[in-house]
Amino acid sequence: MGVYEALGVRPVINARGTLTALGGSVMDPAVVAAMAEAATAFVDLPDLHRRAGRRIADLLGVEAACVTSGAAAGLTIATAALMARDRIEAVLALPDTTGLPDEVVVLKAHRMLYDQAVLVAGARFVEVGVASAARIEQVDAAITDNTACLFYAAESADTRGSLPLAALAECAHARGVPVLVDAAAEIPPPDNLRRFLDEGADLVVVSGGKELAGPQSSGLIIGDRRLIDFCHANSFPEHSIGRGMKTDKETIAGLVKAVELWVARDYSVIFDRWESLVAQVLDALAGLPGVTAERGFPTEPGIQPIVIPRAYVSQAGRPAAELRDALLEHDPPIAVGIEQDRLAINPQCLRDDELPTLLAALTALLRPPR
Predict the structure, then answer these.
(1) Residues 88-101: pLDDT tens digits?
(2) Distances 188 to 145, 181, 263 between C-alpha atoms, Å
(3) Which residues pair with 222 in a beta bridge?
(4) Where, per the database record, does this protein carry N6-(pyridoxal phosphate)lysine (predicted)?
(5) Partner of 363 at 20 to 30 A CA spacing, among 4, 29, 220, 254?
C-alpha cells in the first residue's frame, strides 16, 4: 500500500500548473536521491547554506543567492534584510522596527495576497497611485528617509496601474533605495531570472518548488552579494525573524540538484511538447456540440507563467465551475483552472501517460447524452 493510499488521499492528474495547493511540482529522481543522501550525515548547516548559495549563483549566472523555505519566506527574509541589514540588535528585534526604516513603497496595482509575507517582517506598505494608474512622480514623492525598499510584484507587471520595472528601479536607486521583486512563478521563460536583475532589481525572490522542480518547501533569493549577505543574517539558522523558516540540509541539497538539472533543460523542446499537448486537447474536443475549445494564454493577474499555452474550454449553458468540480470527482481526480468562465488546461505538469485519461474524462463530460 502506497503512502497516499494509506492516508486515504487520491493522487491528482495536474492540468492546472505548479500550484502550492497541488504540491508544487514533481521532483526528478536525482533530486530525491540528493535529498536522501543529504539525510545520512550531519553537517555544518550555516556552511552548507552559504556554499549552496554560491553554487546556485554560479549555475544561474547571478552575483549571489540564498536558499529559503519557499518564496513567501524569501519575501519575509529579504524584507528583514533590507530593514535590519546585519546589525545584530536590529536582527534580533524584528518584527519590532523601532529606529529602522520600515516603509515599503508599492504601486497600488501590485498589492496581492502573497505580500503579507512582507508585513511579517514588521514592514509597512506605502501605496502609490490607484489600481488603474500611477505616475513615477508619485513614487518619488512616496520615498522618504524611512523607506526600506520598493516592492514590485512581477505578476502585476501588465496591469493598468503598473509601471515599468526599469523606470521604478531608476527612481528608487536615485534615492538610494533598493528594489525587491517577487517573481515566485515567473519561469519560464528561463531568462526571467536574469531579466529582473538586468532591469534594476536588487533582490529577486523565486520559488524552488515550481518550475525549478525542487522541493516544494524551497525558494531562492538572488541578487546583490552584499544584500544576500544580509539575507543570510536574517535567515535560518541564525536567531532572526527567519529562524522558524527552516531550510534543512535535505531541502538545500535537493534544490542545488534541481537547479543543476534545470539549467540543462532545452526549453525549445519543452515548449514544443506543451504545444503538442494543447493541440491534442483541442483536436479531441473539436466538433462536440456547444463546446468551444481554443489555444490561448492567461490574461488575468496572478496566473503564471503567462508564456505557457493553455487549452481554454467552455460549453454553452454549463458554468465552468460545474465542469471543474465534475473533473475533480473523476477517478483519478483531474485538476484544471478557471479563467473567464472557461476551463483552463495547463500542460506544464501533465505527464504524457496522463493525457488519454484527461481526454477521455473531458469528452465524456462534454459529450451530449444519447
Answers:
(1) 999 999 999 999 99
(2) 37, 16, 12
(3) 65, 204
(4) 210
(5) 4
